[in-house]
Amino acid sequence: MVGVPKLNHADARAALRNPLAFIADRWTPDPRTVRRAALAALVMSVVIVVTGGAVRLTGSGLGCPTWPTCTDDSLTTTRAMGFHGVVEFGNRMLTYVLCAAVGWAIVAARAQKPWRRPLTRLGWAQFWVVMGNAVLGGIVVLVGLNPYTVAAHFLLSSALIAVATLMWQRAREGDGAPRPLVGAAVRQLVWVLVAASALLIAVGTVVTGAGPHAGDSSEVERIPIDWETVAKLHAVLAWIVVTLTFALWFVLKAVDAPREPAARTRELFVVLLCQGALGYVQYFTHLPEALVAAHMAGSAVMWIWVLRVLLSLRERPALVADLPGPAAEVTAGSRA
Q: What are phi and psi of 218, to 5 degrees?
């Protein structure tokens, strides 16, 4: 067994002053560890979306009627609050698991040698988005599940998924200047796809805010529009996203693009077909809770793959100075 090193007073002061730097001085994670940490943060950002949907779909949105405590007299759920209290409080506790995953990603990125500052910043960006969404989640409870705040809560979760996806991708790349793999016209088409997908997600929150799943058995305010009309608009936007994806796939084949963009686009097309089929089934079966939850999970997966398509359009090689071997030594010697 490896013994635990003893810390003197100077070490303790250094750890208190800058704990991340203190850890980085004593631990160098394998690049695979950094990638796994980034992936864990991404997976938890999806899990928190799905469990948040479960809170809404089980009518447990006000299972804990106040925030940050569960009741006025108790930090945790009580026996009298029953199933709904357990579901709502359990979702709150998962926020700490998400914070732990994001924290691991930050520590791993900071301890990697050489230190990749952009990767660490992406980890901290996730942390602050999580903190902001936790506060917004508290506001959602305090205003009695106002549908506009619920929609904002979901959209901020989508922003968290976007940052987590970017960090996961950057953990698998170098820090060199990005080099485009396709032409400007293809990149513009992908940006249109990203914008259409973001609009699709936003309209989906309106469907939820006007639809029958209010999130609690009590009287909850709804967005005052016909949810079926908005659902049809949502379906039209979904077909636009599918059409753009198919067009992109065709263009990439026509220009003989590199394998990575074509593969990510093909995967996105499959995800969209599955998500679309699920959406139609849930609509015609009058929105059963299980299918709505699956559709929410599919929305998160779709958003990840749209971003993966965008990020696959360029490559970022490792910086020459970061590579081992003669090239790095020549670079270091030339600077001396």
A: -80, 175
Question: Partners of 180 in the beta sheet?
Answer: 314
First vs last Cα of the chain: how many Å apart? 42
d(CA 2, CA 102) in angstroms, rounded, equals 28
The CA distance from 193 to 306, in Å, is 8
Closest CA to 84 of 64, 111, 70, 104: 64
Residues in the chain, total: 336
The amino acid at residue 138 is G
pLDDT in tens, 49-58: 999 988 888 8
Q: What is the pLDDT of residues 71-116, one digit of tens each?
A: 888 888 888 888 888 999 999 999 999 999 999 999 999 999 988 8
Q: For residues 97, 98, 99 and 105, what is the CA-based torsion angle, rounded to 10 degrees?
A: 110
For 154, residues 6+ apart whose C-beta sits below 8 A from its C-beta are: 49, 52, 205, 208
- Pairing type for strands 314-315 and 179-180 reads antiparallel
Please give the structure tokens belonging to residue 57: 């779909």
Residue 4 above 80 pLDDT? no
| β-bridge partners, 314 | 180
Burial status of residue 53 (CB atoms within 10 A of its CB: 0-12, 13-18, 19 or more): buried
Cα separation, 287 vs 280, whole angstroms: 10
pLDDT at residue 165, as a whole number = 97
- Of the candidates 110, 81, 104, 97, which has an alpha carbon nearest to the alpha carbon of residue 21? 110
Report how far residue 110's alpha carbon sits from residue 281's, in angstroms, rounded to the nearest whole number.
46
At residue 179, what are phi and psi to the nearest 5 degrees? -115, 120
Question: For residue 42, what are the CA distances in angstroms to 101, 183, 334?
Answer: 9, 29, 40
Q: Residues 28, 31, 32, 33: what is their CA dihedral angle, to the nearest 10 degrees?
A: 30
Q: Tokens 């071997």 map to which residue?
A: 325
Cis peptide bond prior to 261, omega within 30° of 0: no
- 5: tokens are 């090193």
User: Residue 83 and residue 266: Cα distance in Å, rounded?
Assistant: 42
